[in-house]
Amino acid sequence: MVHPGRRSEVGTPHAEWRARSGTFGIAPPVFAAEAVKLSALRPVTLVLSRELALTALLLLGVSFVVFVILFLAPGDPFSVLLEGQMPSHEARAGIRDALGVPKTWYVQYVSWLGNLLRGNFGTSIRTGLPVFGEIVRVGLSTLYLTLGSMLVTLLIAVPIALHSSVRGATPLNRPFTLLAYLVSALPVFWLGYVAIYLFSHTFGVFPLVSAASATADRAWLYSLLPICVLGIGNGTVSEVVRYLREELSRVMAEDYIRTARAKGASVWRHAFKEGLLIPMTEIIASKIPFILGGAVIVEQVFNWPGMGRMAWQAAQDRDFPAIMGIVMIAATLVRLGSLLQRVVYVAVNPRASKQRRGAGWAE
Amino acid sequence: MTRYSQIAGEGRDASDLPVWRSADTLDLAYVGYGLLIVALVLVSYVLGVFNWLPHDPEQIRFDLLNAPPGSAGHLLGTDFLGRDILSRLIVAIQAYFLPGLVAIVISLVVGTTLGALAGYRGGAVEVLATYFNNLVDSFPRLVLILLVIAAFKADIYYIMIIVGVTGVPVVASLVTGKIAFLRQKHFIEAAHVLGLPSHVIVLKHILWYHCGPLLVIRATIGMGEAILIETSLSYLGFGVQEPMPSWGNMVQAGANYFFQGKFWPSTAPALAILLTILGFHLLGDGLNSILEDRGGK
Is any Cβ of chain B less than 8 angstroms from the Cβ of A11? Predict the structure, then answer.
């Protein structure tokens, strides 16, 4: 990783002076120790409980939106059940009564929500298996894909952002920025084709068909390809670069960094938390929805057995329970991501228990 | 404001922004490229609507399958059925043009209303607006669209309503932030003192005079997003169906031939997507650094 506190001095008139002061070595890992200081713990629990309540409230809203969409959808299971048999309205109502279906929408909602909370997401129309178990089974491979691709995105974006915000104008700056723009506009499915063609046909590194047919020792290698493609092509690279650069430049101009610099302390150590760690968690948390959306396409291209492929299949078959379960789980993942971000934010910055940062980042 | 770079004596200029941003020529180049792409899209849309095309986009020629660019009068070659790729690319703009505008209008109108109410009224309205924004942001856009496709049908206008609604939070939070910034200004205070009604202050003095650039920028970026969604969905097989062309289903249709080494039929639409989305992004960001970041924050 680039070390901005040091690299910014290279070649400047002050470099020699700083080298003599001897405090610009690599920062000792004091960060972890500070984060678990007792004084910082109380606000964490405080904010955590508030954020948990907020998350629950938002997930309630999510479930309501999903319910409304399904409620408004044309056709219901009864019209399938009664197809061509008892067309009269009374017969239909009678069947509903006999099967114990609640009449009003809110009773329906509450009973549906109760089932959700007990982990009963219904059974898939296509496979006849419980949806929840199936999502958990494929969800793990999606989680692997998305987390890996986040890492790839960061590995691309962080060096570019560090380079341009710490070293200012260098000849590499413009090509990097343009590259980030280009990469963000690449259609990820085509990028997938190019990657498959290059690695399977030309280099012969990966098996073409799927992860299942790969030999055991090559399986993990094969999984790297979709991860890299999603990491590069999820369309968030340029925004991540821009956000990190803006935040890091802002922090580098703060008075406390100037003070640190003046008294010869490590700039990197002082700038890391606010300048890199917090923006990184913020931007990643806010980009989880995009990465999950990109996973739908990448899983399709690479035949990756994940949630995205399941969602695609469910939309093809109009498999309500499956797609509903996937939406709920995906929204839960998004909320958990931002919950985690808040926890990191408060752990790093205990003052934050008093304030709440606005949501208007990144654009 | 003094910069640490000045104190550190690194000889950078006193600009508040990284150098590539204050370099106006680059921003102008971005905007120029973006405008070129917008003009190209507009012209192609008109050409497609009036059917002024180099070839019939659905004319099948078995003697010219997967022809390379420039062969036999086909400027961009032909696809796997020998249809002219250039004509199909032009016609395919119709797949996203009007739906994309619908999505933009929805997100701008709803977002501005919500943002203005939240920013100007504050209090409970702001809490509600924040809740709404967070709620919408909880859904991965593509997954929510798949839910709507499963529940209703794969109609592009339904899809674009979802794209519009999911674009609301960004617009709303931008407008709210802008209003929070403007409210401290003397001219708003003066308007209050003059006794102007709130709706005049919000509509005229805040939105009309000061939010124009912001909304134009959002609209261009929104168009880029709409194109991305439309092409992704038609790639997945939910949007425009064969034989109607869309950039997404053209990439998909060329896929089999791609792995046989005939890259062009699927690369041409992919390049169209790349260059167009790049154009809208660069236009938005170039305008943003020229118009919005000018005065600093």
Answer: no
Exposure on the CB side of residue A276, measured as CA atoms within 13 A: 22
Residues A45-88: tens digit of each pLDDT = 777 888 889 999 999 999 999 999 888 887 665 565 565 665 56
DSSP H stretches of helix in B50-155: 85-121, 123-137, 141-151
CA B123 to CA B130: how far, in whole Å?
11
Residue B224 CA: distances (Å) to CA of A79, B271, B285: 41, 14, 12
Nearest CA in chain B to A255: B4
A131: Cβ–Cβ under 8 A, 6 or more apart, which residues?
A: A121, A122, A123, A124, A321, A322, A324, A325
Q: How far from A129 is each of A112, A132, A306, B212, B271, CA to CA, in Å?
A: 18, 9, 16, 53, 42
Average pLDDT over residues B39-66: 86
Question: H helices within chain A, ranges in order?
Answer: 4-7, 15-21, 31-35, 38-72, 77-81, 89-98, 105-117, 131-167, 173-185, 188-196, 216-233, 237-252, 255-262, 267-271, 278-302, 307-317, 320-348
Asked if the model's pLDDT at residue B167 lies above 60, the reply is: yes
Q: Does A320 contact B at CB distance below 8 Å?
A: yes
Q: What is the per-residue pLDDT for A223?
A: 79
The verdict on ipTM greater than 0.90 is no
Does residue B71 sit in helix, strand or coil? strand
B140 is written with which tokens? 């991965």
Which of A2-11, A241-250, B78-87, B188-197 has the lowest average pLDDT? Answer: A2-11
- The verdict on a CB contact (< 8 Å) between B139 and A62 is yes
Q: Are B81 and B65 in contact (CB under 8 A)?
A: yes
Closest CB to B12 among A168, A188, A317:
A168
Rounded CA separation A69/A65 (Å)? 6
B197: left (phi over 0), alpha (psi -120 to 50) or beta: beta
Q: Alpha helices, DSSP H only, in chain B?
A: 4-7, 19-22, 24-49, 85-121, 123-137, 141-151, 156-166, 168-182, 186-193, 198-200, 209-210, 212-236, 247-253, 255-258, 264-287
Q: Which residues pair with B78 in a beta bridge?
A: B84
Of A100-109, A123-132, B269-278, the poorest mean pLDDT is in A100-109
